[in-house]
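Hey team,

Filing this mostly as a record. A colleague (T.K.) asked me to run one chain through the structure pipeline before their review meeting, and I want the input and output archived in the tracker in case anyone asks later how it was produced. No errors, nothing strange. Just documentation.

Input sequence:
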Amino acid sequence: MTTKGLRWRDGDIPMSLQLDDTMTARVLIDGKNSWNAVAREALNIWNDQLSHVQFTTFSSTQRGDGDNHNEVFFSSNIFGHAFGDGVLAITTAWKVGSERVEGDTVVNDAINWDSYRGSLYGFDDSVDCAAFSRTSSVTRSDSIIPTMPGRWWSLS
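Output structure:
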């Protein structure tokens, strides 16, 4: 798979899911009480769309940019750098030559996140699995949404 000249090596893209370690657990709109479970489900949905690569998941407490590991976590900053106004999440892109070797997804913990599937609030497929689309290098959105008092963000 390629994007902007970068290509993952065919095979597995292991993702260290650290969402449960970095955000307080609670019951989400979809009934789940694990952020990692939500992310794992989103990655599995992506896997159904991918042919040459597949996301796999594991747990680790290691976290660092440029460490050859793909980490997914909530944070108040991006490896020491502030999130810009309105930024929900970022995905890093590390490469060796034209081969992509790392993509961390850092989710802004200042946002009141929740999770659901479908058109619960009157719009379909309107959220941020966009971060995983940047990791996989394809474009589609699915199941994680930020909630803010009085307004809903549609991310597409």
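Quick notes for T.K.: DSSP finds three helices and 14 strands in the chain. The first strand starts at residue 2 and ends at 3.
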